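Tokens in:
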């Protein structure tokens, strides 16, 4: 399914919910560079892939101000990171970055080339910036091979796959990316309403086949699901989301739910990776940007959680408004409290304890909590005598920020009779 944007007549209008998506991308890239550039290094290699690049620039549908598209966001983030990292260094880090901007629509492709020229990037084309008039799937394997040769050890890359609809990116290609390139991350847009709003047997079957998930509903028909489950949309969304991340082969994932202000066209922005630290960076972005939590379960460790943005509550275009669970201090306290209830049950199932890293890695996909929130919950459990955190030399951790990945979390010698 091609995008509704054409760029046949110049700039296209962009809605506030799409700008929120760009805001998350921009914030994530900023944090990504900060985390990866924290250590000492002489060179930094990365490939950034925009599989549905668009025309490069829009105008805001409400304010009519120009809005930078995802290719410019990628270029801007890298330039800002290079300036920040090398500020004051006598021996600057060499940034070896490559960019692939893929766009299937001819007019959008041509507009993107025009915008890149206006931004002063024309001389970089076919050097470190590769712009292709093509479908992403036709280019994916050659890009994977390019990255594999460029970064043979880890294949460090970010794939921004902002598809229009839901079936332009099969789970098979995401699984190939993540399995071939262990350092790759995928930021996927998934138009869940595009699937559900027209969910008859034929459309759903065809769509799921394209996604590589033909057995999603376990042989049930849409009619049977609608008759047996009043919240059938929520049932399908929950099943679909869990199957989607499982079929993509990602060890770690973070969903972000974005709602169209017209009340339809809702979609997911899903971050997929093979490392829990990447997942923690994305979760931190949600908290730092004060977005909100559409919450299908609890604040602690639950099977199906969704983070969310709803432009109906963002009248000033500054962030958000009222949703069920806001990423603010009360939400943080609620998450700490929920983890304090749930973590002891995990600890007490391991007589010899488990490492902090094992606890976080095995449960973080089911929680909106960051690693710091986990640490805060553990510190309170220690203070209340419900757990002990012990370092490699037997030292007992008392404060949250002292807790390290290899520290062991143990049941206390005297177990409390109840959880907090």
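Residues out:
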């Amino acid at each position: 399914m091609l995008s509704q944007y054409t760029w046949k007549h110049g700039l296209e209008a962009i809605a506030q919910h799409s700008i929120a998506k760009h805001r998350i991308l921009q914030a994530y890239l900023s944090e990504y560079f900060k985390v990866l550039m924290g250590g000492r290094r002489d060179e930094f290699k990365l490939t950034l892939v925009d599989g549905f690049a668009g025309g490069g620039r829009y105008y805001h549908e409400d304010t009519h101000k120009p809005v930078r598209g995802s290719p410019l966001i990628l270029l801007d983030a890298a330039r800002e990171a290079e300036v920040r990292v090398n500020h004051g260094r006598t021996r600057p880090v060499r940034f070896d970055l490559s960019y692939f901007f893929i766009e299937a629509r001819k007019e959008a492709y041509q507009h993107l080339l025009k915008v890149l020229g206006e931004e002063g990037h024309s001389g970089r084309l076919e050097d470190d910036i590769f712009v292709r008039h093509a479908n992403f799937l036709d280019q994916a394997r050659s890009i994977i091979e390019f990255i594999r040769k460029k970064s043979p050890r880890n294949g460090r890359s970010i794939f921004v796959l902002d598809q229009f609809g839901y079936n332009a990116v099969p789970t098979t290609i995401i699984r190939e990316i993540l399995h071939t390139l262990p350092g790759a991350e995928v930021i996927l847009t998934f138009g869940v309403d595009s699937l559900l709003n027209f969910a008859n047997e034929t459309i759903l079957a065809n769509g799921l086949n394209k996604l590589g998930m033909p057995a999603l509903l376990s042989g049930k028909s849409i009619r049977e699901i609608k008759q047996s489950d009043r919240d059938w949309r929520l049932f399908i969304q929950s099943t679909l989301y869990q199957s989607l991340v499982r079929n993509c082969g990602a060890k770690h994932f973070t969903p972000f739910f974005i709602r169209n202000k017209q009340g339809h066209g809702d979609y997911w922005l899903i971050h997929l990776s093979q490392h829990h630290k990447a997942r923690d960076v994305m979760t931190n972005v949600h908290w730092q940007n004060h977005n909100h939590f559409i919450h299908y379960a609890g604040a602690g460790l639950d099977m199906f959680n969704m983070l969310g943005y709803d432009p109906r509550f963002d009248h000033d275009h500054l962030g958000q408004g009222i949703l069920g669970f806001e990423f603010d201090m009360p939400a943080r306290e609620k998450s700490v409290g929920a983890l304090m209830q749930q973590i002891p049950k995990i600890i007490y199932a391991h007589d010899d304890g488990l490492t902090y890293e094992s606890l976080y890695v095995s449960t973080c996909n089911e929680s909106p909590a960051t690693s710091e929130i986990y640490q805060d919950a553990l510190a309170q459990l220690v203070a209340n005598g419900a757990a002990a955190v012990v370092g490699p030399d037997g030292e007992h951790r008392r404060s949250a920020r002292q807790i390290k990945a290899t520290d062991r979390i143990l049941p206390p010698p005297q177990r409390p009779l109840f959880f907090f």
